[in-house]
């Protein structure tokens, strides 16, 4: 079938066969399918959707466009988490070592932040010496030694996704659930996982802001992943406020290390992290629901997870005493100042996207993939929805470089906070799809 005949079938809402999908995706990588044809296909999918079978076929075709990692020599299950991205979302930094301490191997391939959400790799870039692009041998050695390694995407995994995503990005076709599903899962399948947990965010700081849309994405991801042979579950989690009390790269690393060592643990962050970890322990068969929760709590409380984090950082080129001397290593902004409440009341709502854009405005995030970022800046001691404040009380602290930056960061932060008479209740984990 010619590419134009294939596109016409989707345009006319006729079913696509798995081998035709595979040929089209292979053509996208070898150049026999043009970017214009890929764009037309993406737009036809945007309007006419795909069945679960078509989504599975697209996902597998994109996985097979590059290398698929093989971890069969490891003596335990291999699993990972994927988050749809949030603000103050440093869960990966804790989840990977907690799972490693439970006997799960976590070769985590993460991304950089774009827009209002932070990226896990940007957080690790604030640790001096830590490499997020090790060669394959070092990646494997780290996973074997620490049980986890958090690194960046390599060019040889799911290259069709990179090509198609770049086309979608400039043709208004990113917001398509079947295309998002295939994009996310092709990369996870190429990483050679046996189990996956999805953290699908919902609320004012999420990619999908309503519960209905988040659920549709989560259900698509879970059914397609399982259909492609990857045991997968999803939690839908609240992003109507930053998850950690810190937002900004080095600040979130500090928050994560404090969490692992038990120095400071944000409550909502702890609940989401442990729930995701327990779900993986359950999916991989290392424990029943009850046992899984006890196992992950023990991995954290015993210090075993902190130890795994330290081994991972050292193995990937960071300081071997990073946990003990984190303040000597992490970059710090020259100024820190409180942002205070302008009225008495209760924090009744947070425009979480606005808080994330405040970090970007400080220089801590990027709006174009090529932007460089300042790892030291951001907010910490962020208070959440439902907290009672009086005029002059601290809403957060801002870490900044210039007075102009402070004024702008304060303006954005105050604008993002609604102070009223009462606060809505947003369930922290409104749905589980397992
Ligand atoms: N994240 C991805 O990896 N792909 C998408 O299409 C959207 C979000």
From TrEMBL:
It is an enzyme of class 2 (transferase). Homodimer. One of its GO terms (biological process) is pyrimidine nucleobase metabolic process. GO terms for cellular component: cytosol. One of its GO terms (molecular function) is 1,4-alpha-oligoglucan phosphorylase activity. Pathway: Pyrimidine metabolism; dTMP biosynthesis via salvage pathway; dTMP from thymine: step 1/2. Belongs to the thymidine/pyrimidine-nucleoside phosphorylase family. The enzymes which catalyze the reversible phosphorolysis of pyrimidine nucleosides are involved in the degradation of these compounds and in their utilization as carbon and energy sources, or in the rescue of pyrimidine bases for nucleotide synthesis. This is Thymidine phosphorylase. The keyword 4Fe-4S does not apply. The gene is deoA. Its EC number is 2.4.2.4. Keywords: Glycosyltransferase, Transferase. It holds the Pfam family PYNP_C. It catalyses: thymidine + phosphate = 2-deoxy-alpha-D-ribose 1-phosphate + thymine. InterPro entries: Glycosyl_Trfase_fam3, Glycosyl_Trfase_fam3_N_dom, Glycosyl_Trfase_fam3_N_dom_sf, Nuc_phospho_transferase, PYNP-like_C_sf, PYNP_C, Pyrmidine_PPas_bac/euk, Pyrmidine_PPase_CS.
